[in-house]
Amino acid sequence: MNRLKNLPTLKIDPGRSIAFTYRGRRLSGYAGDTVAGALYANGVRIFSRSLKYHRPRGLYCLDGESSNCLMTVDGLPNVHTERTLLREGMHVRPQNVLGTPEWDFWGLLDHLHWAMPAGYYYRVFHKPYRLWPFFQERIRKMAGLGRFNPDWQPGACDEIRLNADVCVLGGGPAGLSAALGAAELGLRVVLLEARPWLGGCYAWRAGNGNEHGPLYERADRLASKLAHYPNARIFTQACISGLWGDNLVTAFQVDGERESFSECYMEVRARSVVVATGCSERPLIFENNERPGVMQVACAHRLARSYGILPGTSAVFSVGDDLGLEAAADLADLGLEVLCVADCRTEGHDGAWVAALKERSIRFLPGWAASRARGGKTVSAVELASLNGPGKKILECDLLVASAGLTTNSGPLFVGQAKMKHDPHTGLFIPQELPPRVHAAGRVLGHTAPKAIELSGRVAGLAAAADCGLAAEQELCDAQAGLIAMPGLAAASKILTARRIGSGSHSFVCFDEDVTVKHLEQSSRAGFDVPELAKRYTAAGTGPSQGGIPGHNLPLLMAELRDSGEGEIQPTTIRPPLVPTQLSTLAGRNHDIFKCTPLHEEQQALDAIFRRIGVWKRARYFSSDFSSRKEIRNVRENVGMIDVSTLGKFRLFGPDAAKALDRVYVGDMTKIPTEKVKYSAMVNDDGCLLDDGVVTRVGASDYYFTTSTGRAAVTSEWIRYHCRYDNWNFHLVNLTDALGAINLAGPNARAVLQKLTEADLSPDALPFMGFKEIVLNGQVTAKVMRLGFVGELSFELHVPASACRSVWRWLMEAGREFDIRPFGLEAQNVLRLEKGHVIIGQESEIRTTLHDLNLGFLWHREKAEAKTVGAPALKFTEHQEGRLKLVGLCMEEPSRTPADGSLIVDESIRGYICTARFSHTLEASVGLALVDAPLARLGTRLKIFQDGMGDERLEAVVVPTPFYDPEGKRLRM
């Protein structure tokens, strides 16, 4: 590895060698190398093959803007090796090749490019239809990049969520200046930078951009200054994936050597955001512009300055801005033979860099551009052509450094809903209107002069500070005045493509999908002549790198093909994530975060087996018998108790409390008497069941009600949302976590509870559906409701969460003589099934109305003044045909119980089993199912398909519900 050493801009450590393997060969690189850089230093020039034509592809950029360098690393496919740091022992291999990258069998497809015009996949393979399965199988085998590895395991992933005053996106000179402007005022600043170091476009440039000396030294000073502020947090290798509403920034950070994770998902909620993501390069389009040996200016410059790798031996530059001239002169000083610099501009060059080329005897050709790269698999020569008349030159070389100029990295602004407009002068898409408390800075605004870049960053940082309420008006005005005094923005080159010289059949606009200028011409002729349509018709910009390479050229070319004015140039839509993110990264460490009821430890001591139910961990069983037979029998014959603290518990009070209840509940909530509870339901605007629960009136305009476990978190917002325009006077308090709840059920429930209170619990004093507040053991006040979800005499006790464990122990002690036992959710599930009671989400789905569940009787039709949510839909669907109806069923063979979710079929699917269990009480297998209305008649025989039974069908009969105690006598004991 012959590296340039002792360069002050190097980002590698030549003293630390790192071994890795490529295609079984043992190679080595240095600490700080990327995988692609290390491969290039070891002589690898062909990294992959393209998706459609299987053309050879090499190192083109160093920021993952194309799929050229996607490779399989340590078993993970589609790794952007240009931005993946080298680690000891890595195993790297190419992908999308049959053979080797140098000799790929599928390379013959390149000779058939004429047979694959734009949109051919839409028009060819489906005719005749009988051949489609043949083509489908083969297309699927060839589609996609890389090969899925089911054995690959992600490393440790983490997640971090931060709150900041100012979040700066980009660690270049503008981003550093913005962060400094905010940090100096004492604000909390978070800076995110995708590269492993700060400095942006300064980091590899040795030229003097201002009075502060070489640009790389200026970058180091800015970074060091920011690092001294304890209120500024800097994250490198942090790729931004999105900018969302209310200034939520999402990103992920790739591991550093000292981190404990491989990738870390990040969310930053900021009061103000500064977007300083800089620029990348707009590709120059010519014949064979993606051939290995063609690379962008910054890629060639960074290879040498940051990694000590001369990108070639003899080079031709074909550029469109002064950065190309600067790089040519600097690389010539480092030992690269620069044969010629062709600049597509005819004017506007920086005289100092033109003079620098002349001093180095480098031929300078203004008004010229590359028209073709020659060579087999890599570049061996370049054809240059004059853009202003006849003229052609052929130069032999092994490196073509090509760029049409700059394009802004505006992804965060696009996804943040900024209004972007093409600026004819700079040739860039520049923000015209930014979201609230979002600012842009630096090259993303078109600034190219170093001083202007830094000043724009400071302006943005001070403006962000003003968003946070800090008084920095004078400093901001001074910075703005200094920025206005700077020279205007530099004009961009107008070149798009050398179409007048080349045929366009191998002039690539999108490297990922092998889309050429010829394809865009075909798209335009077919009527798909705007960027969004052409993008879909040709697939340009839909590959792994999204709009990286074609994002700027595609709209420019389509405007040219339509002969549109520059004011009509529109970019294509950019969608998050801006950078591909692994699902394991989004999942973080996969912490099992859950809530525990106040009785969790009490049940744990009784050997409860817990299961995750939504956000809660709840006791599902109290023995290893998962049929819960003993628990069920104890409730039916004796007494048991279950923890129901997860129920939503609310207090609603105020002069208009009844109106609010009437708005969201389908029943008449104005006539609830004291010491009674009313069962009712909420529906959505479609009349579909949203929640059910009981409501009681505890005082004048004072109500207490419960909701199902799954809806406790949304009920308060649901009520406020539907009452937001009425100016009603009421207050809603969520008591879910403040109160615990225990359901004491069974024939002996009254005898147990009576031991703890002097209150009268007789059927007359506290009847079924009654409510009373009592005192337990003279110490704890409990709200008691006589309910019957499990079909037995039961008392639901709501007590303060802090006293819940004490009440549980008192009940256990009082019930000792009755052999009281706790029961879990599975026992409750069977008990309520035997009574035909519904659980939302189990016997209902998104389409299920009250009528479908035989709960239409809950709807009070005479509440027109309340404008009950869903009432019009309930009226419309009351007699609607073609709906699924809830029915009870009994299995023909009691020993064969279908699984929940099993399908009810005849010639087609006619419904499904919601819940089915073998009932030891009934000695039968019973269940509830949603079936087509014609099958809901009593006595209808149903056939049930269950996975794993082949053509065999289980049989059941529709029967009435409840299955157990249909008269409800046991509830009213």
Task: List unreliable stretches of 5+ residues.
Answer: none
CATH class of the largest domain: Alpha Beta
Give the DSSP E fraction (strand runs of 2 or more residues). 25-35%
Query: What structural class do helix, strand and pairing data support?
Result: alpha+beta
Q: Give me the count of strands.
A: 49
How would a crystallographer describe the biggest sheet?
7 strands, mixed
Shape summary? elongated
Q: Could you give the distance between the termini?
A: 90 Å
What is the helix tally? Answer: 23
Residues in helix, %: 10-25%
Structure description:
This protein is α+β, with helices and mostly antiparallel strands. The chain has seven domains: 13-127 and 138-142, Ubiquitin-like (UB roll) (Roll), CATH 3.10.20; 157-280 and 408-484, 3-Layer(bba) Sandwich (FAD/NAD(P)-binding domain); 286-403, FAD/NAD(P)-binding domain, CATH 3.50.50; 508-568; 600-645 and 738-832, Gyrase A, domain 2, CATH 3.30.1360; 648-734, Aminomethyltransferase beta-barrel domains (Alpha-Beta Plaits), CATH 3.30.70.1400; 880-973, Elongation Factor Tu (Ef-tu), domain 3 (Beta Barrel), CATH 2.40.30.110. The protein is built from 23 helices and 49 strands. The strands form 13 sheets. Strands 8, 9, 12, 13, 14, 15 and 28 form a seven-stranded mixed sheet that branches. The protein has a six-stranded mixed sheet with strand order 40-41-42-39-33-43. Strands 44-47-46-45-48-49 form a six-stranded antiparallel β-barrel. The longest helix is centred in the middle third of the chain and has 18 residues, at 450-467. The model has no long low-confidence stretch (mean pLDDT 92).
